[in-house]
Every structure is written in structure tokens, then in C-alpha cells.
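Single-chain item
Fold in C-alpha cell form
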Amino acid sequence: MIKEGNSFMKGVILGGIVCLVFTLFNNTKISGELGLRSHEHRHLKAPDKEELLKLPETKRMELSLTIRVLCLIMVTPKEIGYWASVIETWSKHCDKAVFYSPETIKVFESVSLATEDQWIQTRRAFKHAYENFKDEYNWFFLAKSSTFAIIENLKFFLLNKDPEQPFYIGHSIKSGELEYVEFSSGVVLSIEALERLYRVLDDPMKCPEKGSLLWKMSEEKELAVCLKYTGIVADNAEDNEGKELFNSKNINTLVVEAMSNHPSEVVEGCCSDVAITFHGHSPNHMHVLMYGVYRLRPYGHIFNDALIFMPPLNSDND
């Protein structure tokens, strides 16, 4: 009996070692095939405002109309307050907003993804967006319901980027040899990047649903691996001063950090003038942000923006 028990334990240990070796080999194989060692961090800058002002007004208006953003907003029934706030606030500024939930919800309209697994949710949301909207939009912005976005600033940033090129944009983070875009601050794919992703979604070797490692990776890392197989690497979005445009923290936190780190220049040390996202605001704070971003104006002050982004047709946009 003791001998049988020992044999069983040896088998379990041996099996575990074999699985671990296989996983490490597979991980090394992925890194080699994707060329992760040779990848350098990429920084994408916003357009130069002064250069834009030199263009004729008709040309600027033409440029602004070419950027069509579909917002993919990931929601859950547990965060119904966030969901309602996003509907009432910044999502109105998307050319179209589609809400994706893990199950069918009667309160608000959404696309049911029929799974609680966040990576499978992400895959199905991007697949649905491509199959239904690939001919209408050229940029695809995925965000969580706890993220606040300024879509006009996103469009301004995208102005000098060609959607026919493979862009994977946001706040990029390096984890070991993998660089990925953080989901909490939002992810942007060009139509070319989305098309490449769509082509590998059904390939279990390049983009498996369950992953190919013993440990489970986050959905943001899984997406980065799938995109790497198509030759796409993460781009970090910055303004012309090098400040982050996609923020994984809320404004309150960023201000407090700036007061601590740059007490003599809090505003300059905090945030970009053309910031695109902030993450972690409460539903009520989202409404306050809408007031500050879109409604509060100094009377008699004339703004001289290089571009005007018109609200979507038939929208009750602010």
C-alpha cells in the first residue's frame, strides 16, 4: 500500500514537472517567435497645434470628419451606477457607443457576451465590433465603465495617424518581455489592427481562448500576445511634452501626487492639457467632470481651437 502511494506521488510530481517544463518552453517559444527581446518602447505624440492652425479651415474640417470612433464599453450588472453615468455623460460623444455585458440585462441595452471570463469577453466584443461595424468606423476604443473619456481629445490625438496602419494605443506597460496596453485607461485599435486581430482570434496556436500557460494571464496581456503574433506592438500615447494621455488614475489622485512631487508647479506636474482618459472616478464625479470639461466656460473668452469635432448626427450631445 505504501509502495503504491509512493508511486502515485512520484507520478504526480513527475507530471507537474513535465507540465512546468512544457509551459516554460512554450513561453520561451512565444517570446522568440514574437521577437520580444528586440522590441523597444514606442512613444506616439499628439499632433502639433501650431502646424494644424496653418492649414485652411476647410481642410481642417475635412480632417476632423475622417475620424470615426466606435466606443466598446465593458459593463457589469454589479456596476449599474457606472453604466448609467457613462450613458448619460461621455459616451454621447462617441460616433457610436456599444455596451458589452457578461449577461443579458433588461435595464439598459447591451450586447450579451454570455461569459464571466474577462479575456473571452474582450475577444467576443472585438469580434462583434469587427463583424458589425468594420465598414462604418476606422478607430475602436475599448474602455471599462469606470473610465472617463474625452473623445474630442482622442480624435485630436488620432488626427495624424493612418487607421490603415496597425495601431495599438494607450498607456503601455512593460511586464518582463511583454509590453501591453493597460485596460483601465482604455485601449485603441485602428481598423487595420482590429482586422489582424480578427484573423487570429480563431487560431488556437496564436490566440487561444484559455491561454497556453499554466498560470492565467490578464485579458490585457492576452490581447498583447495575440496582437504580437500579427506584428503589432503597443504604443504609449503622449502629448508633445511627454505627458501621459491615457491615465489609469483619477484626477484627484494625480493632483495629490503632483502636489507632493511638484509643489511649485502642481498643474504642470499633474496632467496633460489634451488628456484622453481618467480612471477610478465615482459615477457622481463623472457628471462633475462633464460640467468642467464641456459646460463651464469663462464668459467673453474666445477659443481658437485648430479643429471642431461635430457631435454625432441626432445625438443629444452636450
